[in-house]
Fold:
Amino acid sequence: MQKHTEEHDADVGSEPSPTPLSHARPVGSTGRAAVYVPVLAARGNGGATAHDDKTHAPEARLAEALGLAAAIDLEVVAQGLIPLRAIRPSTLIGSGKVEEIKALIGEQHIELVVIDFPLSPVQQRNLEKALGAKVVDRTGLILEIFGRRARTAEGKLQVELANLTYAKSRLVRAWTHLERQRGGAGFLGGPGETQKELDKRMLQDTIDSIKIDLEKVKRTRGLHRKGRAQVPYPVVALVGYTNAGKSTLFNALTGAGVVAKDLLFATLDPTMREVKLASGRRIILADTVGFISELPTMLIAAFRATLEEVLEADVILHVRDIASDESEAQRADVLKVLGELGITTEGPDCAILEVWNKADLVVADRLAELQLKAAREATGAFVISAVTGAGVPQLLGAIAEQLSKSGDILTLSIDPSEGALMAWLHQNTEVLAHDDGEDGRLRYRLRIDKTRVGRLQARLAAVGQAGAQIV
Structure:
């Protein structure tokens, strides 16, 4: 084994760190890339990815990394797992593997090397110097995807904030060559210290400005939420691992044209539509950004506003790709994030329904097993196909049943002439039954959200006892 020296773990070069991918030349369909997943030595379970992922198989992590590359149209001409005995502080991977990849870069004319691991600024810079090609880690790749997919003003601000936070971390040792020129003592520093601090201060000023803009957007979203509360329709939020089929299900339920592709992070900005259930009750359905394991910390913070709809939701639909071998591991990732957001994920107060999607991709025998298992789930699980529509009516019925748990059941006696009131009831409550009473009046039995009881009482007061009353 090659002996490590202090020189090997020092900076290979003294240049400033190259700009993040999002600031480099746009990589289109002709961008040639190599994708690698570092894997630590086996621990009796086939090995673990370098970020110590104990739930996802290394092969699955490679497939996910390839999916991330495909999401920005990279042409992957080389891929693989990189076995590691230990993580090298200088380059992450060993010198032999570095030379092997360098040779491949020359042969295949590779422009970009993706390392599915959070590289330190030193490791990224040293690898780029040694390989002679652009190197991007998992965080940088996800940031690039988010930058290309964001459509709303809020989404773009969130991406910019995350990008700048990432870029600021790259400055930690970006100016070491100038720092060596420093002179003086105490708080007096040389040009390197001045340049580094200037860059960090400029980045921080921009970050602070974006945070102010995001707070304004957040307040606007809060006003919109208050406006919906005046309706008010219950909110049902779709969550799940990226590419689980949330947007396809959203389109199936709403008829909307939300982008639904076989790509990771096809949806970034929250989308909301009104849906009318079979009972006549209206709900607001919210599609949200997909979750992913090892999501960069700055993205969790930056996109928290996107997940606010989940925090406000009356019911959460956890959409899972049940055809994937990684379905259970992905479920654990999603529940972990929901738990961090303060959402109850188990017990009697849990308002999460599991939606086992992509049943059309499961063989018949396996599908029968899943349906039996779903029927035994205490919290409720529904096997569906958002593409064929199988199981969707049952899911909608379960949503209505879940929402009904928070409503009051009332019986009203209404004069037949009160057409406006009856129309309001059908629009704003769940009418369970209505028939003609012996006294010529109409009797309505309905379920109403507690938040709407006050509005109903105001309408009853407006028409008086002769018009309608609670019996």
The radius of gyration is 28 Å. The first strand starts at residue 32 and ends at 40. Confidence is low (pLDDT under 50) at residues 1-30, 43-48, 172-193.
